[in-house]
Design a protein that fits this description.
Chain lengths: 348, 797
């Protein structure tokens, strides 16, 4: 039993001190933190009060605090030793020895980005649609309002399948250069409203280097109904960007060109690396290009069998690989395709 | 498109901040990829006056100059032959760094101190001239910054122009956009010393041919356009008496800032117009033309032209050429010919300004593999209406910088005049597409700002819009709505999330299945990977135009790609590799033109430690073996194709066979060229079934106790554990709950070729507790069954 100190705040601790020998292990550790913890411990707080007291009070109060602190520490240590003795089979082990691990696994960073974005879109009433990776030239280009023999075709360096090169656009086969043809397929399968995202692999005749791959993932999406407008496009994609990049992220829309949307836009978000000051990653602009979007071109709606006078819609397309590279700081796109365990195991 | 800030300033008549220009252009749809600062390093160079020049005492070719730079008087040793007392030259003071990287310091040249450097044009990277100092025609005080006297400081913006905007391939178009955004006027820059008033207006020919530029003897140049040749309009001017030589500094600087090298004053004048108005012009040496004649006609099969780059081009039918009376002298819209090139001796010119059909130019440059500044513009569509203006501007610059005069009036062959489209814009449609109701005035202003002529038709709520010739991309109402939004500003439109109707569609089964398989494989300690679906696969569907033979086919299986990733991991000294991939494989279609069959597969490879090394087993873990593979394969089949059954394969490993008897997967040890230290590699690949598994159904478990008995049996070779298990089950009857293998032994006491396998039988009756005798009798029946049907006996030793 500790003598009363005459300081009420300290004397109040005497009953807690007496209770220590009866505490369980969990209770003991909690109590040790409550009393002696370096941050929130009551006695630590009391000790901090000492310098604020009048000079003549500092010494006696300090001594009293120290006395009760020593008693508490001893009681805690005693009880710890008692409890340790009770857990007999393990009491002799060095519990600092490493534990036995199991192999963990994980999803590819590109999959993680696709699943996270798809999840956000699901929350906005979208479902997932897919389509073949080999398409006819007609579906990949003509249905999407690419004029034949137009420089817009240069935006998509295309891989064709052997044996069909000499055919007309209806039967000439190619590796789809975007997942946008799934828009037309979706429209032909049923009537509006449509709210669909379309993930999948796409192909370009690009060299395999640090920033290009001949095959990569794309995530497209579109919404068509009566009364859908450019404001809906801005609002929905801004919402998605804030869910994905963080609530405070700044977003901007600027004009662009895609044959299958009009008006067309690019959406940028504030550069995640420099915060807008301009750096090498954002080419000094302070913005990161995230996706292309726009109002579905009336001719695309017509190709899907939808009346463009009655229905309007918006669409977007983005590269989850590029977003993963930005988000995780991956410097070389080839890392995504090498299956290096040192790389993949960072995304568990 | 490389754009000069100073050139834009000349259009807009005000100083521009380059960053702001870049931001404005980005928000107008033409983002700037890079900004390059030009001649900024010349900020340190000053104007100096040479007050005295004396011969160098120890060198014939050097002179010792007294130089005043406003701050002091310096002695400078100089080798330039053109230095004279009283002259003003660019001066690099001590401590200055020149564009080449040289930093000037005090030094001695043949015994004489030199305190700085007087500079040539080449040393300042202002010209190629290194014959002497750059003489400054100025009376600026010594010490004046050189850039105040020679305003060459500029910024070069690399503007990313989308393929629909040919108008932005000239400075005028870029300036027009900026003027629209800033709400200010713009005008063509004044040409220093312009002789523009001497340029006669062109004259339209009545048919498809005519003559222009007659000389004193009445001989002119015949000009003709062959109908169907791909040339819709051809303007030709004859200029006589030019002096070919270097261009003045202002012209060289503008071209250089826009990324084009100065050639001579004539070529520079045509390039100037291309960079300013976006319309390529071409000048020919009149003396080299047979006829003399200039005509646009269709190419002949096999016809050849040696182009300006010195290459002999063989043409095919369907191209457009410019020809004289005898031969093709240029590939229209792509590149001129060497034979008619303007040379230093040229005095008389033919200047051509034309409009060619964009698809034909595109086909021609693709077929010839020859992409030029000109083809880039013609392919996107130059301004048909403004061709005469482009020629007029070209002649203005040409007369100003190269002298001469236009002979007669330029001829304009335009057999069928075509005006740009008139488009009707419904005002309420703008609101429906954009989602906000803009004032009609704002809509009109936006369209006027891009150069359209707008006539309101209030009666039916429409605007009649005549689009300008430089915007061939504006074809329909929706194009105008984009222009309204663009000029009004995308960022000024609201972005409030409104109510919406659900799409009401199910997710695609393959997407759902792929995600289900991915999620199911991660807990096995496998990492998802991606490999390129393009590979070198002799069984794969071939790509017609692959970039490399390594990527020549579409894969018919995923596993080979994963094996290559194992090898790459080995190369990086990673011994434990556990990968899976879910993706599409391709099989040839049925029929010549049928698309390939696409199938969703999952594949996995494992090698290395079965579990992470731990000190309790001395830091060594067992490597993955074939039984790990079988277990993994069974788990993957259950996950990806639950209707399929795993069977022992005829070779090494196992296969999965689906309900229709089709192969649905396989698992096998993989033979590879592995490093000596590597563990065996195992792989599997399974076709993913797209039908979703039904929901799990709860089954109550029995409350009666189970009993188990082990049997050690001798299995002769050829008898499988699977058969024995089935026999034990059959013999044991209804109360046998399960039969599992618990041990295998070969060796001492067992005849060679045989093995002892221990089976554990688990007995239970869900209704009641079994009695000992019942269990023993069932065990005996089981033993007898395998003895009678398979000849299996109990192990006795």
């Amino acid at each position: 039993m500790v003598d009363a100190t005459g300081y009420p705040s300290l004397d109040a601790l005497r009953t807690r001190l007496e209770a220590i020998p009866r505490l369980s292990l969990a209770e003991l550790e909690a109590e040790a933190i409550a009393l002696l913890g370096r941050k929130g411990g009551i006695l630590t707080a009391e000790a901090r009060r000492i310098p604020t007291l009048p000079a003549e009070e500092r010494k006696p109060f300090g001594a009293a605090v120290n006395r009760i602190k020593v008693h508490c520490e001893e009681a805690v240590e005693r009880r710890r030793a008692e409890l340790a003795g009770a857990r007999s089979p393990f009491s002799t082990l060095d519990l600092s020895m490493p534990g036995r691990e199991v192999w963990s696994g994980g999803l590819h960073p590109v999959t993680r980005v696709i699943q996270e974005l798809t999840g956000i879109f699901r929350g906005l009433g979208f479902s997932v649609a897919t389509g073949p990776e080999v398409e006819s030239e007609w579906m990949n280009f003509r249905a999407l309002n690419f004029p034949p023999d137009h420089p817009a075709m240069d935006m998509h360096d295309t891989l064709y399948l052997a044996g069909t090169e000499a055919e007309g656009p209806e039967t000439r086969l190619l590796l789809r250069t975007h997942t946008t043809p799934v828009q037309v397929r979706t429209m032909r399968e049923g009537s509006p409203p449509y709210r669909v995202v379309m993930p999948g692999m796409v192909y370009r005749k690009d060299p395999f280097d640090a920033s290009h791959a001949p095959a990569f993932a794309q995530l497209d999406g579109f919404a068509v109904d009566e009364g859908i407008c450019f404001v809906d496009l801005k609002a929905t994609l801004t919402h998605v960007a804030r869910r994905f990049f963080g609530p405070g992220v700044a977003v901007r829309f600027r004009p662009s060109f895609f044959p299958f949307t009009e008006p067309s836009a690019e959406m940028d978000v504030r550069c995640q690396l420099c915060g807008g000051d301009g750096c090498a990653a954002c080419k000094g602009t302070g913005w990161m290009e995230i996706l292309g979007c726009g109002m579905v071109h009336p001719r695309v709606l017509e190709h899907g069998g939808v009346d463009p006078e009655r229905f309007t819609g918006w669409a977007f397309g983005m590269g989850p690989g590029r977003i993963a590279m930005n988000r995780y700081g991956i410097p070389d796109i080839r890392l995504l395709y090498e299956g290096d365990m040192r790389f993949l195991s960072q995304f568990g | 498109m490389l754009v000069s800030r100073r050139w834009l300033e000349a259009f807009l008549n005000r100083p521009l901040e380059v960053r702001e220009v870049a931001d404005r252009l980005a928000m107008l749809g033409a983002p700037v990829d890079a900004i390059e600062s030009l001649h900024a390093i010349l900020e340190q160079i000053v104007v100096a006056r040479v007050s005295a020049v004396i011969p160098h005492p120890n060198a014939d070719r050097l002179r010792v100059c007294t130089v005043e730079d406003g701050a002091g008087t310096w002695q400078v040793v100089c080798g330039a032959p053109n230095v004279v007392a009283g002259g003003r030259y660019p001066f690099a003071r001590m401590g200055t760094t020149l564009p080449g990287g040289l930093t000037i310091a005090q030094r001695k040249l043949r015994g004489e101190v030199s305190q700085g450097m007087l500079c040539s044009g080449r040393e300042l990277e202002l010209s190629d001239d290194h014959d002497g100092l750059l003489t400054l025609d100025t009376d600026a005080a010594p010490g004046t910054p050189l850039l105040d006297v020679l305003p060459v400081r500029d910024d070069r913006l690399d503007v990313d122009v989308t393929p629909n905007r040919p108008d932005l391939l000239g400075h005028k178009g870029v300036a027009r956009e900026l003027a629209a955004a800033l709400g200010i006027p713009f005008r063509l820059p004044v040409i220093p010393g312009s002789r523009g008033e001497e340029v006669p207006a062109s004259e339209r020919a009545s048919g498809v041919s005519g003559t222009t530029g007659k000389n004193e003897g009445g001989v002119g140049v015949q000009v003709a356009v062959e109908p169907g040749s791909g040339c819709e309009r051809l303007l030709v001017a004859v200029v006589r008496g030019v002096v070919v030589g270097p261009s003045p500094l202002w012209l060289r600087q503008r071209l250089e800032a826009a990324g084009v090298r100065s050639i001579n004053n004539v070529v520079d004048a045509t390039n100037y117009v291309m960079l300013e108005l976006g319309h390529p012009l071409h000048a020919y040496d009149l003396a080299t033309l047979s006829g003399p004649m200039v005509q646009a006609r269709a190419s002949l099969e096999g016809e050849t032209v040696v182009t300006l780059d010195g290459t002999r081009r063989i043409l095919t039918q369907g191209m457009t050429v410019i020809a004289d009376a005898e031969r093709a002298i240029g590939i229209a819209g792509v590149m001129g010919g060497e034979a008619t090139e303007v040379r230093e001796t040229t005095t008389d010119l033919v200047v051509e300004c034309a409009w060619f059909e964009p698809p034909r130019i595109r086909a021609t440059r693709r077929s010839l593999g020859l992409s030029t500044e000109a083809s880039y513009r013609f392919e996107r569509g130059v301004d048909l209406q403004a061709a005469s203006e482009a020629l007029r501007r070209g002649l203005e610059v040409l007369l100003t910088v190269a002298g001469g005069s236009v002979a007669g009036r330029p001829i304009d062959i335009w057999p069928a005049v075509r005006h740009p489209a008139r488009i009707f814009l419904r005002v309420d449609r703008v609101a429906r597409v954009l989602g906000v109701t803009l004032p009609v005035r704002a809509i009109e202003d936006a369209l006027v700002a891009i150069g359209a002529t707008v006539v309101a038709k209030p009666a039916d709520g429409r605007l009649a819009v005549d689009v300008p010739g430089w915007r061939p991309d504006l074809e329909a109402e929706i194009d105008l709505i984009e222009e309204v939004a663009r000029i009004y500003g995308y960022d000024r439109l609201p972005s409030d999330l409104g109510p919406f109707r659900l799409g009401g569609r199910d997710d695609a089964p393959d997407a759902t299945a792929a995600d289900r398989v991915r999620a199911g494989l991660v807990p096995f300690g496998l990492w998802e990977t991606l490999s390129l679906p393009l590979c070198d696969d002799s069984r794969g569907v071939a790509v017609a135009n692959p970039l490399s033979s390594n990527h020549g086919q579409l894969r018919s299986a995923i596993l080979p790609g994963l094996l290559r990733q194992v090898e790459a991991n080995w190369a990086g000294h990673q011994g434990t590799v556990r990968l899976f991939e879910v993706g599409t494989v391709f099989h040839p279609g049925t029929g010549a033109l049928a698309p390939p069959q696409e199938e969703l597969h999952v594949a996995a490879v494992v090698t290395g430690a079965r579990s992470p090394a731990h000190w309790t087993s001395s830091g060594k873990g067992d490597p993955v073996d074939i039984w790990d593979l079988k277990g993994l394969f069974e788990a993957v089949v259950l996950l990806a194709n639950p209707a399929a059954r795993v069977q022992v394969a005829s070779g090494e490993g196992w296969v999965a066979v689906d309900e229709e008897g089709r192969l649905a997967g396989h698992a096998t040890p993989l033979r590879v060229d592995a490093p000596a230290w590597a563990d065996p590699v195992f792989g599997l690949e399974v076709t993913v079934s797209l039908s979703p598994p039904g929901p799990p159904a709860f089954r109550p478990w029995p409350s009666t106790p189970a009993a188990q008995r082990d049997l050690a049996l001798i299995l002769p070779s050829g008898v499988t554990a699977e058969k024995v298990s089935a026999g034990l089950r059959k013999g044991g009857g209804r109360i046998v709950e399960s039969v599992t293998v618990v041990d295998e032994f070969r060796g001492a006491g067992i005849a060679p070729g045989q093995r002892s396998v221990a089976f554990r039988l688990r007995f239970r009756d869900p209704e009641r507790t079994l009695r000992e005798q019942e269990i023993d009798r069932a065990l005996e029946r089981a033993r007898q069954e395998v003895e009678e049907t398979l000849g299996i006996v109990l192990r006795t030793s």
